[in-house]
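Researcher: Go.
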Amino acid sequence: MRTKIFKPKQISAILQEYDNGKDVSTISREYGMSKATFYKWRQRYQGMDAKSLKRLKELEVENQKLKHMHTELALDLKVPYFIIF
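Model: Structure:
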């Protein structure tokens, strides 16, 4: 099954629907996602608007890139270079 990627505006709208009184099972069926995904979003992004949610996702992507760069540099420093003549 192909996983769906939800944009920050969509996540914010889904959480807003729940706050307005819509049932979790109805929301999960309507958007084609699991209840676990909904509860994970609710735990992570509760109280955020779409703008701050988008900024958080951008920061997470940037952090991931920086971690990858750090790992690459750390590996380069550990690998000894031998010069063969």
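Model: The two ends are 55 Å apart (CA to CA).
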